[in-house]
C-alpha cells in the first residue's frame, strides 16, 4: 500500500517541477 503513496508523491513532485519550468 506504500507504493500508491509513493507514486502520488512522485507525481506531485513532477507536477511541481513542470510548473517551475
Structural overview:
This protein has 21 residues and is mostly helical. 90% of the residues lie in helices and 0% in strands. The chain has one helix and no strands. The model has no long low-confidence stretch (mean pLDDT 92).
Summarize the structure.
The protein is mainly α and about 20 residues long.
Count of helical regions: 1
Rg measurement, Å: 9 Å
Given the C-alpha coordinates, what overall shape results? rod-shaped
Low-confidence stretches: none
Strand content: under 5%
Mean pLDDT: 92
How many E-type strands?
0
Features:
21 residues, 90% helix
Note the topology.
Blueprint: H1 2-20
Amino acid at each position: 500500500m506504500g507504493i500508491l503513496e509513493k507514486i502520488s508523491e512522485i507525481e506531485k513532485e513532477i507536477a511541481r517541477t513542470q510548473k517551475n519550468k
